[in-house]
## 1
Amino acid sequence: MAVIRNEQTGKWEVRTRYTDWQGAKKQKTKRGFRTKGEALRWEEKFALKASDDIDMIFSDFVETYKEDIRPRLKENTWLTKECIIDKKILPYFKDKKLSEIRTSDVIAWQNEIMKLKDRTGKPYSQTYLKTLHNQLSAILNHAVNMYGLRVNVARQAGNMGKEQCKEMQFWTEAEYEHFVEAVADKEESYMAFEILYWTGMRLGELLALTPADFDLEQNKLRINKSYQRIHKEDVITTPKTPKSNRIILIPQFLSGEMKRFLSHFYSLKENERIFTFSKSFLHHEMDRGCKASGIKRIRIHDLRHSHVSLLINMGFSALAIGDRVGHEATDITYRYAHLYPTVQTDMARQLNTERREFLRVTEKQG
């Protein structure tokens, strides 16, 4: 190995030889270090990684984990993971050697995390606690699977928290119609809510729509991308899951409304976004419409729940509904089945009728 100064740039560089995981001899050169100390530290970390020496400290291995995992994830997904790692995990484990972290250390970390409060002064939710533990476990599991760590002590310690299904709220069709009348004075708000309620698409999918996604003569809508705001920039990504990439049929009345809406644009191109407002704008419009109509406030995402519940109430199968809204598995769709109030009412009415018919037949036979 050699650490030398480049006379032309004035920066330091590292030249080193190593054996890769297949046993092949390789050479690695890394340039651009401002000081010799930075170059030496990088050289030390690289040597540990190249030799699978698991005595490297946790913070150094996290850098390896980031290099390995980040290219495989969407930017917004990675940013969430990175925030958890940097703020909730590294402060506790950064100076420990990876091979010296014990189950007791993980339990002590869990106990400290469970004492923390969120911005409203409340303890972290069970779901969030589980998410934090899962991220620590994912890092250690990567070390086990890829770099020879003997055991994942986070798995041995057991999880903290548990998965909690978020409360699903919804609007019936009557509630929605009453609400949407209250925002009809703003055409873009009206059309955004119409699309969300009658298609069940996600908000990010709505904000990524372009005129090219609509075939209004055939009443078809293509959903193949999602909008995110990342680092103060507009970013278009692939949909949430592979099954989210779909083409659906929309009601004819919605095609007519969309055709009129698009005709009001002066120079909107086929591949330009139709809805360019922010997510916070639509939340404000939800507040405004609920206040004006007196309809209970639900989340924007609950319009998706409302669409699924409406279709279940109309008798469509979970498989068909899942295909329409881009659910990866039918059990996700089944979670919505309890929402529509008439389902339970109809069940009770049918059971009551069945019981009366049984008694009538029994008495007649007796």
## 2
Amino acid sequence: MLKLVPRHVKTASGQQTVWYVKGACQFTGEYFRHSTRCHRKIDAEAVLTAIVDRQRQTAVLGTAAGLSTFSEAVVEYLAKSGEPRFLTALVTEFGETPLRNIEDTDLSNGAAKAYPNAKPSTLVRQWYGPFQSVWNAAARAKMVRERRWTKPTVKKSPIDYPTDDWMEKVIAACTRLEQRAVILFMSFSGLRASEVVKIMHRHFDRENGTIVAHKTKTDARKVSLPPFVHQILLMLPKGRPDSRLFGYASRFSITRILKRSCKRAKVEYFSPHKTGRHAFSARFLADGNSLKALMEAGGWKSVSAVMRYAHLEATTVAAAVAGVSTPLAQLNLGGTLTGTVKRSSS
């Protein structure tokens, strides 16, 4: 019978528990022993439920029944390194439901049941987003046709980001070189925290000051480091090619670093995303670059994805227009309209 077994593993941030599915399935007799990739037991239980549901369907209907269930889709999603967070409520709601029987109203009703009174942003992050990811994995496996599910509209407010003065205080409050390095690199590369922690020593070109980030949301991206960031990365201890450059196994490690450093510096806390991606974008546009250039520098898929930063570009453009240089600025325009316009003696 399938059951969950905890396994304690050592990571750069300390010891963590990873739950494994182990045993023979009571429906098909197939033996399992693989990781759920979950640290919380409640998330691992959702994965186990999905596997059991899939095996039950296989035993009863056979693999050629053409009635792939949501649980089967979840197993496929996790098998392709999908994120297990927030799947518990989805498996509880849709577990053995055939994918082709799920409608928009089912998704809306399930969201209201699982997250009553939740904000649209919460529903998109914890319900509609994970559901769409599972569906996409199933579509790639030819279990169901591709489909874009309608999700709540999230009103995006102007971005919030820390200034370089704030950055200076937080960097000074860090207690280790690795902490300063990871914060600076994140803020001057525009990479997400989850992407930063996956960078290995082999990705860092120590001579030319570049890093190639492979595990991003889009394609691999080559980052050219500002000289001062390059210098601090050179000060990091050298490690094996396949070891993590900054030594952190999880994006949550960066969150903890920022919270503690902000507390010591007695300044407002900004999340890793605001400290990194938002600050990078604001600084990039303040230097006079366009949204299109930002899209390429930050690895966004389209200009529409960076439109939330448009007000920052507009501010930069307005300043450039107001400060444009021209010989006409030297003309004496204070005379009569019919008089001769002369250059100012100054």
## 3
Amino acid sequence: MKISARNQIPGTVKSIKKGPVSTEVVITIGGGHEMVSSITTHSAESLKLKEGSKVYAIVKASEVMVGTD
């Protein structure tokens, strides 16, 4: 698979919470860090995701927001 996004972070699926429309996927990326992605349930099923699956967290964003209390 080749894609244009440069931020491709290898990881392992830690957990999956399926909903009727969207699915939350928690990915362990090493060093005790995790990334969480919300994807469509259809996509999660098409990718055949399960706990322990080796995946890539692919980040492509046009802006990053920062907030404080």
